[in-house]
Amino acid sequence: MIQSTVPMYAYAFLVVLCTYCLSRRLYPSPKPHVPKRLTSLADIEQLLSRPAHIADHLSSRALANARLARAFNINSTFVNSDVAAHGAFTKFATALISPRNLPWGRLAYVAKQMVSVHLLCTNFPSIVAFDTLIRRITLHVILVALLAGYVDESAIEVDDLDLVAVGINKIWTLSKSSTYCPELLEEVNLRLRRWLPTYDNPIEIIIPTYETMWRVVAVAVSLAYDDVEATRLFAALLKQPTNEQYRNLADNSISVDNFMQEVLRLYPPTRRISRVMPVTSPSILTKLLPQFFTRQLTVAADIEALQRDSCWASSLGEFDPARHHPQRCTRQQPRTLLAFGAGKLTCVAKNWAPQAAAILVAAILDQVGLEKDLNIKAGRAVGGREGWEGWSVRKSL
Ligand code: HEM
């Protein structure tokens, strides 16, 4: 009998290698930085609401948000897979927005107060960039109203509000191209620690409470300021900032809620919600050597695309708050509204944030708009985190 000179383990290695190469050919590895994009409701629900343990949801989000952990030096639940940390963070955030901590009347009072501080001051320049002003007011309201139990109000300077707001924007935008700015982050943190001295790392609570809110306020103001009907609705809400007034559908008109739902449909601040998912090739060797046959794939739920889906009819790209009126809305349409995510990690402020943003919008429109001492000059297009070039608030002639 002829003895083989090639040992058995070499054959085994060859078989593994060939299977690996074959599986790579059949199931090619996606480029790591090009996420797979999901746009249908079924696929997005499958991703965000899959029946997995909360720990799996948290770890797939943490992996997808790793760049934010690095950019902002944070370890909050958005970048951390720890289940206990998630429970503590969401409990804390839920308590902040509870009516007991912050009744709507108190929020409206602080919003009016901050609008006066920033718009009615004697040294208000004849023209200010629109996004600067909205960021300044929103951040100040979040600090003084939502974080009332933690803030040292006397330490807040207007210039510092601008530095923090612009800094957060810049750090976020640059993180998308893996560019990090530790010196700028230090400047931002220096101010935040002065304002919120009892927090270990205050930016961890400022990001979820402020970063999406200012953009919703900015879009809503930009779409309402020259709309007489909308300004009338917001004025009524400021006078009576209750749940009933927010949803009031008087005289066949729309409600403020309809207006805000349309803002969030067309301009969701979180345009994509990403997860990193393990993908395995269907092979028996996957079971034996999972590390060779499992890849990490970034999958992005494209919320913006879903919310502009054809189920919203041919006018899907138009801003039309009346489409949310109960008499016009189909059963399917509200299911596609996922600006606050879906599944186990849905935003805890889903029912609070639209109404809170509307109260800020109402306080701003009380002082700015057609036939007011301050007016808005529109730019070319409605912006997002960036893109507000040409928009300004100026003294009326
Ligand atoms: C209009 C404003 C807001 C929008 C559009 C928004 C959007 C979102 C989205 C899309 C998620 C899910 C992220 C994911 O699945 O990975 C989320 C989660 C979260 N948001 Fe918001 N958010 C807003 C305002 C707020 C506010 C004001 C708070 C503070 C109370 C807040 C606290 C949270 C928390 C704690 C989570 C994590 C939930 C969890 O992990 O279980 N959000 N938000």
TrEMBL record:
Its cofactor is heme. The keyword Metal-binding applies. The keyword Translocase does not apply. PANTHER family: CYTOCHROME P450 (PTHR24305), CYTOCHROME P450 12A4, MITOCHONDRIAL-RELATED (PTHR24305:SF166). It comes from the Eukaryota. This is Cytochrome P450. Pathway: Secondary metabolite biosynthesis. Belongs to the cytochrome P450 family. InterPro entries: Cyt_P450, Cyt_P450_sf, Cytochrome_P450_monoxygenase. It holds the Pfam family p450. Keywords: Heme, Iron, Metal-binding, Monooxygenase, Oxidoreductase. Gene3D superfamilies: Cytochrome P450 (1.10.630.10).
